[in-house]
Amino acid sequence: METILNTNVEIKVGFKLNGLLYEKSIPANWTLLQLLRDGLGYYGTKCGCEIGECGACTVLLNGQAINSCLVLAPQIEGAEIWTIEGVADSINSLHPVQRIFIEYDAVHCGFCTPGMIMSTIALLLENSSPDENTIKTALAGNLCRCTGYVQIIEAVKKLSGIITEKDLEKFRYSE
Amino acid sequence: MTMIRVTAYENPKSIEEATTFLAKDTYVPIAGGTDVILELRNGMPVKLLDINNLKLNHVTSNKDNIEIGAACTHTQLASNPIVSQFVPLVGIAAGKVGSKQIRNRGTIGGNIVNASPCADTIPALLIYDAELVLLSKKGRRIARLDEFITSPYATIKRNDELLHSIICKKNNKTGYSYLKLGRRQAVNISRMTISVALDIDDDNAVIDACISAGSVFPVPSRMKDLEKFLRGEKIKPKLFKEAGKLAVDLMIKHSGYRWSTPYKEPVLAGLIERALMQASKGIVQDN
């Protein structure tokens, strides 16, 4: 009986991750976070609270920031996902958001950084020159337990003068 | 972390297909999943019915009503022009749910069906006498939102029913206020929410008042006795202070004297006073 109860159905999903098409058969009980880390080996997306409060697992889903711990993997059928691994075009050319985070010491222990960067990109997609309040609202769902918020906010502020449409276009979602 | 157990996952493309599944077996409908996935972590095996492909994310307006699709996300409602014009409190409340990530995913239908005493959008919807459209193989049924939630996390929705949409009555008032109190500005579970819509005439007398509260009563509710008390009265600071006291009496009458009451008494009185003050000035408040 117990074995029957433990049987999770497998679902076939097709999706785009960091610009590449995937088709995979996955257990229907997996979250997107599990699919990314355990299924595909993308460990850049962090697993923090798993209840949608810390934002460490933030990724872009169809151009919007979401907690990947609160999305069931079968629900990403046809979706476009970007994780921290897809942000830089190559290992030798960091994305402006990454460069400015380093320049402004916005990275302390680093655990919140992938989530912070994905939330920042989602914000810039909506508003390329956000004011401080808009930045705080956009990043409110990302906790930094080193409490390095000042540097993070300063870094995002700095980006408004630097970021170009070319830096953002690959993340834009069009149905 | 307890394992989520999913024994079936269906992804219907039409309402007809979805209600057929619901009639056949017990499925848990899932849209954004921001509440459902947390519940699944208790390890109970479930059959899931994904309702994201039923096109339930519409906002439409006719002469008297606004219809909101159950799968509209909070982000969508917070920036929808029809919502901000005709049911502004709903848009403000949606914009205060959780974090950006939660608002992008969580839906208004989920907020209602989850039936938490502290749900952010329900008190706002109550101001507009919201009604819920429930669909099943047996047909269409309309339930009043103020009769839909029977106790914390329990509703009259049958397992074979799907929440299709929410119908809000347009009620143009002269002023509105929505106050949410939490431990911090964002990503918090509301400690208390107050929604107020006031209609004031040229002589500064209250023509009509609609007031609702979350986390004050066992289920989010309108405060009809308080509304009655205000109707016809001339606006003055003393009136709002008295209204605050009356709200506290109503809370104790309906929720009993609980461990949290000594905290909630002055807080509720203060929030009611502030919300009425703001609404009397005609401002749609953003705290």
Describe it for me?
The complex is a heterodimer of chains A (175) and B (287). Chain A is an alpha+beta fold and 175 residues long. Chain A is globular and about 50 Å long. Chain A has helices at residues 2-5, 32-39, 96-103, 113-126, 132-139, 149-159, 165-168; strands at residues 10-17, 20-27, 58-61, 64-67, 80-82. In chain A, helix 3 packs across helix 6. Chain A has 7 helices and 5 strands, in the order αββαβββααααα. Chain A has a 5-stranded mixed beta sheet with strand order 2-1-5-3-4, sandwiched between helices. Chain A has 2 domains: 2-85, Roll (Ubiquitin-like (UB roll)); 96-171, [2Fe-2S]-binding domain (DNA polymerase, domain 1, Orthogonal Bundle). Chain B folds into 3 domains: 5-50, no CATH class; 59-169, Uridine Diphospho-n-acetylenolpyruvylglucosamine Reductase, domain 3 (2-Layer Sandwich), CATH 3.30.465; 175-280, CO dehydrogenase flavoprotein, C-terminal domain (Enolase-like, domain 1). In chain B, strands 4-5-10-6-7 form a 5-stranded antiparallel beta sheet. Chain B has a 4-stranded antiparallel beta sheet with strand order 11-12-13-14, with helices on both faces. Chain B has a 3-stranded parallel beta sheet with strand order 1-3-2, with helices on one face. The model of chain B has no long low-confidence stretch (mean pLDDT 92). The chains are: A alpha+beta (175), B alpha+beta (287). At the A-B interface, strand 4, helix 4 and helix 5 of A face strand 1, helix 2, strand 3 and helix 6 of B.
